[in-house]
Amino acid sequence: MGEEKSPKRVLISVGSKSSYLSEAWDQPEEIIKTSLRILLDKEALSPSPADVLYAAKERWGPRTHIVFDIFNHDYDPAVAHIEGRNDRPVITIFFTRGTDVVVSDAGMPVANAVNKGVRDTHDPRD
Fold first, then answer.
1. How many domains does the chain have?
2. Cβ-based neighbour number of residue 103 at 10 Å
3. Which end of the chain is more exposed for a tag (fewer CB within 10 A), N or C?
4. Confidence band of 2 (pLDDT split at 50, 70, 90)
């Protein structure tokens, strides 16, 4: 992937057999820090804490999901609920068994679902 400063959205998905499960729910900022180190190692991306925008935390079945943006300095919560205004490419980080981690670019179905979830969180009608 290489070092890019273009805005990206990161989906962290922590499975029930991951060593990071309780940390993901109780201390999401710590799993975000861990994820930033992983992005540096695996994707050659090096966002600083100032480049991170925490978006959401939810449990979907046995998994904990955390979403945050990197390099999204033009983020505007007033229009974040409007389709197409804040959609970003999505990188997934799956914490599976123990300390195993899988990083990849999300396919369109996952990216669309993550972007819609972020839009829904900002929708003033909800």
1. 1
2. 16
3. C
4. very low
